[in-house]
Amino acid sequence: YGLEVRGSFVVRVQDAAGQPELLVERAKSGADTPFRCTYRGYRHLGGDFSGNTIYTGFKRVWHGSGGKLESGMSVGPSGNPSEFDVMTCRDLDTGEVQYFRLQPEKVLANMKERYCAGFKPIGPYDISCI
Fold it and tell me: Are 1 and 107 in contact (CB under 8 A)?
């Protein structure tokens, strides 16, 4: 559904019972140092405020001890296509910082397209092809 590799981090949006869920892995073998990922929501403004972006106030922080980290959080779309999310991952030993831009609306649309084309996720799912 979504995979992006930056530096020693891999952020994958995977199917979790019909909803997108985040998985953060270390791309390089042996990259098992502690890290922290912060997920924040933003919105592009329109009309008189066109061109501006605001922080929506949504924030989650996860700490990983190396290897991989499953967020356990469904990244549900808000229904507003002007919203996007930024995940910042920092290696707490080396100081490496990587930024990932996520768009839950597009991820869910991609999941729906795959589901309706015949791919069935494992477990209960709630995706309509109508």
Answer: yes
